[in-house]
Amino acid sequence: MKKILPFCVLVFIHLATFTFAVAQWNLQESGTTKHLYSIQFVNINTGFAAGSNGTILKSVNSGINWTGQNSSTQNDLYSVYFVNENTGWAAGFSGTVVKTTNGGAVWLTQATLTALIWSVHFYNANTGWIAGAGLETVSIILKTTNGGNNWENQLTSTGGTSRLSSIYFTDQNTGWAVGTGNNSLNGIILKTTNSGAIWVNQLTSSGHNYFSIYFINQNTGWVVGADGVTLKTTNGGSNWFSQTSITGYSLYSVKFDDVNTGWAAGFGSGYGGGVIIKTTNSGTNWSYPVSNTSNSLRSINFINSNTGWTAGFNGTILKTVNGGTISISPIGDLIPEKYYLYQNYPNPFNYSTKILFDIKPPDINPHQDADKVVLKVFDSYGREIATLVKESLKPGKYAVTFDGMKLSTGVYFYQIKIGNIIQTRRMVLIK
Asked: At residue 18, does pLDDT exceed 50?
């Protein structure tokens, strides 16, 4: 039997539930239907996005409003990078490179190269690199030391048909580039320690393309790519090991705020279904936050551990102010009288299933972390597969979606822990 609560309490609960429900990834009005391939904020207020047909957008109020800018090109722009509020570059189709020194009020064409540029990265206002594919889809890397006025060719091939999708430097000397190796199914990772004069092949992996790379320092970095592939290194790339991303969707962008907290964004097969995943333990486990879009996502950027944006097709821009951690939805306003973990449904399931649980109000003298909820999934050997929830929640009924796309047919267990309360249930995945 449910308790009848005073009207004022119900109103409070309703408002708290509403706030919680929207505090995940929320759609921003970009003012365009063009595909957006890259987004970057230089501070909490000022950000830029670039996309098809020369689209460049700017916001000065944290993404509440976006204004289109004259990029001076109609070519698709696949990457945008700013070193401060005023100075930035965008690059893309037909080797187009445009630059601004006044926050985008004026964009000037710097270069039209014989190339397809997928990624641009600058270390400071003078020194930067672009990466992509040249004639006959041969990988290229070019460097500038004068702010883009001149570009020097550093790499013209990784062997065979190839392209580089992402480039990133931690200082003026040390950088990495990733992409497709000598055929369409080979991922490649390159590294330089002398500002790009020499690039060394660190890894060639059969079966997966790599789309994005990010390093938090000179030792620790991540790579994401096709079919949800995620790789990590802790020694500058001398060794790379696979991590389980919990999604089979292709991941096109990765960003970390520190060595533990990071995000990746992408989309499913057929260019449908935006996906965002998050880790709080350096990639050992990834959660599956609700992205609130069916559009493909191509770029993700965070200014701190809470505030971030992602951009994608059809002018999609999403923002979070709580780290995008919420992958659960509150159900109704009534407050349960006990903690309870329900049987997932459907069960057995194919790819995805919903898990419901109840959180009751804390006792008069609650034990420590009484409202801290941890919901995890384990395989039949007791190995942890995913962390779905790990945060403090208000009393109420909640639902979370578990995606088993990358898992094999078999028996799995999901367990909830609230303080010293532990409940476990069994579920079956059939493909």
From this structure: no
